[in-house]
Amino acid sequence: MASIRFVRQISFASSVIPTMHFQKSLPRLSIPELKDSVHRFQAATSPFLTASETDEMKRLLDDFEASSGKTLQALLQKKNENNPNTSYISDFWYNMYLKDRRPIPLTHTPFGTVMHDPIKLQQRNVALRCTNFIIAALNFKSALDSNKLQPDIYYTKEQWKNSVLYNNFCSFAPSRFSWFVSYLFGAFPLDMSQYNNLFSATRKPDDKKDILTNYKNSKHIIFFRCGKIFSVQVIDDDGKLIDPSSLRSHIEYILCTESEDAFPLPALTTLPRDEWTVIRKELGNQGNSELLHRIDSAIFIVTLEHRKMLSKDFDNADLKFLLTGDGYSRWFDKALNLVFTEDGNCTIQMEHSGSDGIPVARLITDVLNDTIGNPAVLHSQPIPENAASSKKVRQLCSSLTPGLRDKIKDSLVRYQDKVSRLKFDQCNFPLGVNDCKPHKIGGDSLAQLVIQAAYYESSGGKTVPTYESCSTAGFKGGRTETLRSCTMHTKAASEALYSSHTDSKVILDLLQKCSTYHSKLTREAALGKGCDRHLFALNLIGEENGVATHDLFTSRVFRKSNHFIISTSTLANDEIIAGGFGPVTPDGLGICYRIYKDKIRFLVSSYPDNCSTKFVKAAELVLDKIRFAFSKT
């Protein structure tokens, strides 16, 4: 999830400032200067390229800047001028996801697990917690749909976050000027366009490119239990939400399902997209079109897993299951999945093409706070006798030929084989923000340095391309920028920590340099002054206009530089206690991390071609060395 944390106002009460009030006046993401992106990419790739590869990269970049790069820059600027309501990267970025023909689970479907309910009776009762979450999520959606959800705003001055003066000034300002009024208060509104893809949205497989579809008038949700499919209408024709106690009864009814469906349709969503496209058409031809439409058009999906967590704090097997499921009950195409285990743990799983982490993190925060502070139904409330769950809960059944059944079974076997090769490990170490502050070291920069040094330690002295996501939501249509956190500074620090003879003062000095440079990279990326998205867009604008592809983009050194062995993302919200995703390359690591006041936590996934266990042990060793250096300086 994107690494940004901002103060916001809760809850679903009508916001003085309309949800989309700032959209018209949000600043646009500027296209970087070609020479700047060339320079930044050269600097960003030097730490992991050999001397000869660095020379080759410089030659290619210089030639690109002097030749077709100028033409492509002009074409990109022209396209940007002709599309003033979005960013230059937005369409390219959506298409990157939707044209990807690989299976989407694990890499494109990250999860975030919600903190435990402090009221134990609500935590332990899955039907109760599920009911409260669904009702709160529907209230969130209602506020969003009616333009009454508080906009996301980054406040640089705490005094304005609940200020009547600020709210009134901004709400009275015309939309085309509202951002500038907010800016005068030191408050920066963020782009809200991705919120439109949270609810009633799905990624439908199609030839060559999937289709992101939104069903605005949807009134039902879909439940999966043991591979079986149930539909429940939660909004009536007058727009009124379902009675919470009746919904609880419906969930209790669905939970009575114990036997697994021998041919679970969700297994098909784990397939490569072209293969799933063909099978989906075959399903439609066999009379399943209405069933598929019912799933696609649901407001969101609720998965009621038939498993409890092994540990309150989630052991490695728990983390793996929360990401992968078992192939029976996760419809990975859906934008939003609420996953509940039998002991009441709640996990939100998203499909990444339509939105980045910020909207989902906001949803988790607001919904959790609402379920705790204003639960729709309490443990002591009786279930109404007239709930009529057997009639109101509609089980959806598929019509399958023997050939389709074989394909479902085959997809299930293939997915479970892939999952069996995935490994999760975690590191929890007592070193946090409070330990960093006296030494003027930022928490995120420390976490990224530990990742670099741990990989250096566990691989015998290697540095590799590393991806950190940085949000550009401060701009209209902004998505993310790549923050390449493997730098010459982290390489030097990793070498020093790898050595057993480096003085503590030297280590501290190197850590401070890493922090200063990482902060610089973060600021640049958040302001749209990275290099990866720009070069990505230049390559694609050339394809659109029939410009011959420059050797840079097909070169071995460019491919190596974009083969992200390490992919990272931070969990910035207190309400999310665990999260993760699969490695983006077979030989890679997927690393979710969180640095607290007094500790740091890494959740690491890998396949057999790498080793998360080895990495975690190295991370503990590195952290121990840093803690020692802190104690001696």
The coarse silhouette is globular
Mean pLDDT: 94
Class from helix and strand fractions: alpha+beta
Query: Termini separation (Å)?
Result: 34 Å
Would you count the extended β strands for me? 18
Given as residue ranges, the uncertain stretches (5+ residues, pLDDT < 50) are: 1-10
Q: Biggest sheet, strands in spatial order?
A: 11-7-6-8-9-10-1-16
Largest sheet: 8 strands, mixed
How big a fraction of the residues is strand?
A: 5-15%
The helix content is 40-55%
Count the helices. How many? 22
Structure description:
The chain is α+β, with helices and mostly antiparallel strands. It is about 45% helix and about 15% strand. It contains 22 helices and 18 strands. The strands form 4 sheets. It has an 8-stranded mixed sheet, sandwiched between helices. Strands 12-18-17-15-13-14 form a 6-stranded mixed sheet, sandwiched between helices. Helix 6 (about 125-145) packs across helix 12 (about 355-375), helix 16 crosses helix 17 and helix 17 (about 490-500) packs antiparallel against helix 18. The two termini are about 35 Å apart.
Q: In a few lines, what is going on in this structure?
A:
This protein is α+β, with helices and mostly antiparallel strands and 633 residues long. The protein has helices spanning 34-45, 51-66, 68-82, 90-99, 120-124, 126-145, 164-172, 175-184, 244-255, 273-296, 316-324, 357-373, 389-392, 402-421, 433-436, 443-458, 488-498, 504-526, 532-544, 551-554, 556-561, 612-631; strands at residues 111-114, 153-155, 187-189, 201-204, 211-214, 220-225, 228-233, 301-304, 336-340, 346-350, 394-396, 423-429, 466-471, 480-483, 566-570, 576-580, 589-595, 600-606. A hairpin with a 4-residue loop joins strand 17 (589-595) and strand 18.
